[in-house]
Amino acid sequence: MGKYTIKDFKRGDKVYHLSNTTLIMVVIDVHNDINEVECRWLDKSGKIQIIGFFGEELGKTDDLRPSISFGSI
Predict the structure, then answer these.
(1) Is 15 exposed, middle or buried (0-12, 13-18, 19+ CB in 10 A)?
(2) For strand 58-60 and strand 48-53, is the pairing parallel, antiparallel, or unpaired?
(3) Are 40 and 53 in contact (CB under 8 A)?
(4) Is 34 helix (H, G, I), strand (E, B) or coil?
(5) pTM for the structure as a whole
(6) 24: left (phi over 0), alpha (psi -120 to 50) or beta
(7) Residue 72 half-sphere exposure, CB side, CA atoms within 13 Å?
(8) Distance CA 58, CA 41 (A)
(9) What is residue 43's DSSP assignment?
(10) From start to end of the chain, where are the E strands?
(11) Which pLDDT tens digit goes with each residue over 9-58?
(12) Is the separation of the CB atoms in 7 and 55 below 8 Å?
C-alpha cells in the first residue's frame, strides 16, 4: 500500500491511483467517516467520472515530478 492515509488529502489535491500513474484525478471530497477520498477525472471520451478510494490507494502528483539535484564542479 501507499505512504498516504486519508488524513493526508484535502479538496483540490491532484492525485493518481498507485496502479496507474498516468491518470491524474482531483480530490473533490474527503469522507473521514467512511475512510474514503472522492476523486473526479475526465475519461477518454470527455465524460466526468467520480469514484471513492482509500487514501492508501492514492499518491500525490508532486511525488511523480523528477527531483533536480545540483552538484558542484
Answers:
(1) buried
(2) unpaired
(3) no
(4) helix
(5) 0.83
(6) beta
(7) 0
(8) 14
(9) -
(10) 14-17, 20-31, 36-42, 48-53, 58-60
(11) 999 999 999 999 999 999 999 999 999 999 999 999 999 999 999 999 99
(12) yes
